[in-house]
Amino acid sequence: PFARLRILSKSADFQNVLNLDHRGNTVLCWSLNPPAVREGYEAVTPSIENRLQAMELCAAAGYPVRVMLMPIIPIPEWQQHYDQFLEQLLTRVKLDRLTLGGVCSYGPALNLMERKLGQGNLVSRSLSVINNAPGDGRARYPLELRRGIYEHLLRTIRRFQPDLICALCMEDVSMAKDLGLY
Asked: What is the DSSP letter of 47?
């Protein structure tokens, strides 16, 4: 019906938009991960707490607020880390939508990651391009690992916000259908 401006950020500095007459036509979206993932892979980003506070303020100002939980990284005890994080997020911030996505990358980006994290890092060891729908040549976690991660996270999300619209990023439609998202 009408176009919306969508802003995706990892920032916590949104004071300058709180008093704008956005009329609900600007969607603010944050890319987030649990603190343990942030500390290991996104240490230069603002703290999770600061971003949650910014999200609360923006939601209170009437902005539709969305989250992209990505890149999901299955660190040791990932279920516990993501469950605790989702509980904190979903009990504090009224979300318009939550999108899930794992690592999905072409070779050059993987090379950059491996230069920073080393050849044998957890993410690189977990990725595959073989028999890995949607078959676009990007490295992803194996299909069954992704499905298991998404199923777990969706169960957790549904405990706290049963009606929240959820989506997948860079996944085949069949995966969304299998998870009941389509």
From this structure: P
- Read off the tokens for 8: 């995706």
Q: Give the number of residues written for the chain.
A: 182
Closest by Cα among 111, 127, 6 to 72: 127
H/E run at residue 145: helix 143-160
Residues 27 and 6 sit within 8 Å (Cβ to Cβ): yes
Total-model pTM: 0.88
The answer to whether 86 and 153 are in contact (CB under 8 A) is yes
Q: Which of 143, 140, 37 is nearest to 80 (CA)?
A: 37
Residue whose structure tokens are 């603190």: 35
CA distance 68 to 89: 12
Per residue of the chain (182 residues), what is the pLDDT tens digit? 566 899 999 999 999 999 999 988 999 999 999 999 999 888 899 999 999 999 999 999 999 999 999 999 999 999 999 999 999 999 999 999 999 998 877 777 777 777 777 777 777 778 776 667 677 778 888 889 999 999 999 999 999 999 999 999 989 899 999 999 98
Contact between 150 and 175 under an 8 Å Cβ cutoff? The reply is: yes
CB atoms within 10 A of CB 135: 9
